[in-house]
Amino acid sequence: MRNMRFAVSAAAALVSAVVLRAGEPKPPPAPEANPAAVAKWLETAYGPAAPPEAVKMLLAIARGSQMGPNDGWFGPCQTRYTFDWLAKACGTDPAHGITRDQFPGKPEWFARLDRNKDGRVGRDDLDWSDQSEYVQMAYMVNRLFRRFDATGDGRVTKAEWDAFFKKAAGGQEDLTSESLRDALLAGVGGSGFRPGDAPDPAVLVRGLFAGEIGSLQEGPKLGQTAPDFTLKTPDGTRTVRLSELTGPKPVVLVFGNFTCGPFRSMYPGADAVYQRHKGEANFLGVYVREAHPTDGWAMRSNKLAGVAVKQPATYAQRAGVAKTFCSKLTPSFPFLVDEITDPVGNAYSGMPARLYVIDPAGRVAYKSGRGPFGFKTGEMEQALVMSLLEAKVAASRR
């Protein structure tokens, strides 16, 4: 407990020196102060002003957060494409929804917006907030999926499915609801973590300031010009500059890393978006700092999946891990490796995972919430579809 108190209090002192911009707050609590006192001090320092995301996360850690979707900096996306925007683009009354006949874009675009597949796009179809019942069930499905995915490559094979069935059935020929429940939830505690995966508060503080659970920077805001960058592929044979890909097509940026289990499980969704829209947009992956290295917030589930990686200390080491990532998850679009000082990951607040849609003018049209909870490939695809629709409608009015 003393180590945890010291870590949180020391972090608060560092925040006061580096991050705080709120006048003259009182001196930070002493190392002996309990985490609740630290949280109270941080809140007092900002008063009614909204604190930076890094302070929100430190507040969550001080209060004992287990990194849930509503904690800290796991906020909603930023997007110019709301349901009201879509209704206006379609020339319809938002109160009545949008039918296929009223939609001026391609049928396949409409299909991606019509999330519940009832033939009409309504507000619920574009609701990706953590209050959405669909999103809550999607979180649950992803956690259960990772129980089936023994190799951690984001895909469940028939062999993996059969192996799970055999173990869950316990020698029987069928499964009951109770036996399936017991198998899926075995070892899961109140936090939802599997044994050996739950975070320690002191580890979270170190991970916060190391950039492993996320960048202290917040990245570009909606409508701002996307920061340019030039990076290489893991094998060093290709160099890509972002600004050379912007216009006339939008650009999708996918940030992630090998040791983030939720990213590995959700990445194939981004690859599927690429397959559906590769002729309409440019896609780039950016490989960033590890979220769960063996010398940081290590996870037992990673070890069981054969994903045991120490935080790379050199660019060559990071490129080597990125090669392993590409070998295991086989991305269809190019991934680029961020420099070891994380200039691009910090510029975009891309750690541990994040999604962007950059419009043809090079501006941020959509910025997902921070991963893992903000990494919603379906939300990103809807933003991309509406970006394509925006260009089509604008062209038709010229």
CATH superfamily of the domain at 217-396: Glutaredoxin
Strand numbers in spatial order across the main sheet = 1-10-9-6-7-8
What sequence of helices (H) and strands (E) makes up the elements? HHHEHEHEHHHHEEEHEHHEHEEH
Distance between the ends: 66 Å
| Class inferred from helices and paired strands | alpha+beta
- The top-level CATH class of the domain at 217-396 is Alpha Beta
Mean pLDDT, all residues: 89
Backbone CA Rg? 22 Å
Per the principal axes of the C-alpha atoms, what is the gross shape? globular
CATH topology tier name of the domain at 217-396: Glutaredoxin
Largest sheet: 6 strands, mixed
Let me know the number of strands: 10
Strand content: 5-15%
| Low-confidence blocks of residues | 17-22
* Number of DSSP helical runs: 14
Question: What is the CATH architecture annotation of the domain at 217-396?
Answer: 3-Layer(aba) Sandwich
The level of helicity is 40-55%
Task: Explain this structure.
This protein is of the alpha+beta class. It has a domain at 217-396: Glutaredoxin (3-Layer(aba) Sandwich), CATH 3.40.30. Helices cover 41% and strands 9% of the residues. The chain is built from 14 helices and 10 strands. The strands form 3 sheets. The protein has a 6-stranded mixed sheet. Strands 2-3 form a two-stranded antiparallel sheet. α10 (261-277) links the parallel β6 (251-256) and β7 (282-287). α3 (53-62) packs antiparallel against α9 (201-210) and α5 (107-113) packs across α14. The longest helix has 20 residues, at 377-396. The radius of gyration is 22 Å and the shape is globular. 39% of the residues are buried. The model is unreliable at 17-22 (pLDDT under 50).
